[in-house]
Amino acid sequence: MKFLRSKRGLAVIAALFLILFLWRPGIYRLRNRIAGSIGNALGRKVTINNVRLRLLPRPGFDIEDLVIYDDPAFSAEPMVRAQEVTAAIRLRSLLRGRLEIANLSATEPSINLVRNNEGRWNLASLLARNAQIPVAPTAKSGSERRPAFPYLEASSARINFKIGQTKKSYALTDAEVALWQDSENSWGARLKADPVRTDFNLTDTGVIQIDAIWQRAASLQTTPVQIAVQWQKGQLGQVTKLLSGKDRGWRGGLTFYAKLSGTPEALQIDSQAVVDNFHRYDIADRENLRLAASCTGQYSTSTASISDLSCASPVSDGTLRLHGTLASITAPPQYDLTFQAKQVPLAGMIRLLRQSKKQIPSDLSATGLLNAEFHVASVTTTRSEQGRRHETILQPLLQWTGNGSATDVRLSSNGGKDEVAFGTIALGLASGGAPGNSGAASEASSHAAAQAQNNDLEPSTPHLRIGPTTLAIGGTAPVNAGGWISSSGYRFFLRGDMKLQDLFRLENVLALPFARPAADGAAKLDISVSGMWMEFAPPTSLGSAQLRNVRAETHGLSTPIEIASATVSLIPEAVQLQKIVARTGGTHWTGTVTAPRQCAPAGIDPNCAFQFDLTADQFSTGDLAGWFTPHAAQRPWYRILTSEASPGETPLLGIRATGTLRVGRFALKKLSVTQLATHVGTDRGKITLTDLHAQLLQGTHQGNWTVDVSSRDAISTSADPSIHYAGTGVLRGISLGQLGTLMGNSWIEGTADGTFNLNGSANSLSEVPARSDGKMQFAMRTGSLPHLKFPDAANPLLVQRFNGYLLLKKGVWELAGGKLQTQATTYQVNGTASAEGQLNFSIKHGNEESWALIGTISAPRLERREEAGPSEANGETAKP
Question: Which end of the chain is less enclosed by CB atoms within 10 A, N or C?
């Protein structure tokens, strides 16, 4: 260095530059020497496509298409491939007649890290080989005559990973890499890169930084190393997708630190992982929850095991600990781990629950402490096969043991108004089934067992048993509760007598998926809640409840339902109400109702469809109006659990249902209909009555009706009718005498049959005739018209048969093709009757006589007419 700084040294350098400008050596002839120099330093075959001399800012070469080949024992693919590489030379080596590379800098190279079938990495093999080469440190002294290890660096590099001949989807991009020999017996390396996967578009996986120093040793296993690893700014969802191939749905900022020191044979590991702002992806209102854990242990590459593992995570004033040994690479894996929870406040665990599960009340709080110790260890079993000697084989079976308890457990929400006291909850760890039952098939069967109704089956996989215990809510007597949690799913049960308002409080506190109408009463419960962890699947409630003296309000009915008794069955697809004994107003009901699970919550899903088989003793058109008309009455206390209906909203418009309805007596204004039976279908206010059978007016009705109230609201007007209807059917054996009585006038006697077709729209039943169109073909038998008598006749008109067509057009009745037969003669009758009851009929007896029937139904008059036209009144009138 003193020579270079002296005047003579500067003169020599200047002369050297002048010579290089005036006479340039054959660069292409130097390719082999440059490649050989790099290859000797790395211990790998190196090829170069082209070389250009570069003088400034430092003498060296610009290399194109540099390829560093891998050891054939690892891969036939190059270890490093770079299009552009800059090689800086050591000037002193030129003075000694040698060519030494001082710095080798690659831009955007592709680097392949390969692990062979023996579990060895090509990079480790390269470092072990270089440790045996007698080269000087990268920053060697001026008097050192040995060639120095070059400073290797790469920018914007891509690092690929291969297992055998298979290239994995994992990679490091935008990598800044450096490798150098730090001193006579030590090397250093530095890496900073973004982890990615080639099969996914990941954008927020963070930055990995590794700094490593290792020393010369006789073998790689005994090489002293010091490695510092940092993984920062990783988004938890993207990191889980990077590692497992799937976004597990968790969010938060991941930071990971690890320090490794020792030798590969005994590597001491100290690490810490922190997740800030932890929450589930679909939980918007979140608090800043910080999860942290630190671990220490000793890893051995020769046995692929971690010994003296010790992890700790503080939770308020308590601690969660994990310690033991783990051999995670061997097949099958071996474990000997102990998990401890010491004085862990449940309040901290509730914070984690709020960020992990939807619908948990934001003000849910808990008191109590968790203390537990669980142990898991691999079990070695012996098996023998016929014709072979006994063999000791390590089965894929883990033994789970341990117990614990949560003491003085109390949950509350809603400002302390909803409170559940659990007391002390026992915890136990169970191994589950036999060898080989830890696979996916066993997990599926475990969940299927959990779905089974009214049983206490536990899964065949290892699980944490919780309880059983008793819990108390409000004024309800304590009920039994318990369950289990496994790696694949969970199940909890609730049994006992409970007031419904206390059940709703429990649902509020625990966010249980029970059907919750606005109701008051009592129930005997045998219910379980189960589900799978995967995909954040919603929990499913199964079981039964015996309802007693329940008063409920249901969306779609303005009249409260009073249930004396009923059995509620919760099955996977539906909620069934069986053996119903109930009352709405003055109507008593029995039967069954089935609703799909999406119909169970208070806000009915418009896509759900009920099924029913109901029998009512009686109801009337007034009851129907009460059901379909919204009321502005004050809400009772138990409706605070449901949302208020929108002003003017018509009840039942959101319901879809199908089923059978039987009614003992139906009051249609003054008309009494008995033994009514029909198949009913409702679809958002459109009601279809199919094959409606009923008895009325001493006869029968059979037909089909549709009623559409989908446009009905609280402000409907006569100018804009909101009920649309249509019907067709057959009437048989109708008593015309009873019909006259209903009309307030006994103007007709006899029996009639008929077929009809009617359609129209109205706001009330009284408006139907004035707003309808219809047609009826009728046939009257053996009757009379008591108010009608022909002139000179001693008695009112007696009818043997009267048939024809009645047409209804917006309140006006028209008789067409009427044929009236008496014992003596036959008449043709045609004409109209107005909505006000005014008559205008023509009665003819062949071509001989003609009469005009005028007046009203209660006071009709017959006037003789001339054959050619209307006759003058002759003063004769029909006798009343």
Answer: N
